[in-house]
Each structure stands twice: as structure tokens, then as C-alpha cells.
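Bug #77: duplicate submission created two jobs. Keeping one. Sequence:
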Amino acid sequence: MKIVSSRNITYAEIQKMIEELAERGVELESIELRVLDYLRRFNKCRKAGELVEELGKRGFSEITSVMIANIVPKDLETLKILLNFENKNYEEEFLNDVLKTISEYCSE
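Kept job's structure:
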């Protein structure tokens, strides 16, 4: 087997893929069932793809945007930890705006 491409994907995307397989009648293996159970419990953002796109427009890398969509930080300290892959310092006002955007896309 050869990997021809890769990209970071959100919990919401993985959950959707596994659920679509199940809906098509594909018998899921135990690991897939465990992953699906985990995602149903812990996926905090149903609009993660849209959030990743919005964060990309704001200059964040794909990996950072996906981590933010998966973890859904609620405070500045948690958000700052997720910015380790970025080679930039951000103003607190900008980060507060990012938190507001996260809340808009990931509120349930």
C-alpha cells in the first residue's frame, strides 16, 4: 500500500465518513465502532469544516485550524497552546475574536 496524499481532518469529518459507511450497510469493524462511539461523545463542533475554512482565511495553518475545531477552546490559555504550530504572535484582541468565531460555529 502506498500513501498518495494526506491531510488533516476534523472529528466531524471522520464521524460523517463512518456514519455514511454504516448507512450504506458496510459492516463496521470494532475499531471503527469504538472511534464512532468516541466521536459521538466528544465531537464538539458539527460545523468544523466551515470553522477550519474561516480560520484558514485568518491566516492559521491547516493543522492548527483542525486542532482548534477538534478541541474547541473556550479560553485564551487553551487557544494559545494550540497555536504552537504558528510562527507568529497574536494580539489578545485578535484571539478573543477567534474565540468568538469558534463559539459561533461550534455552539450546540
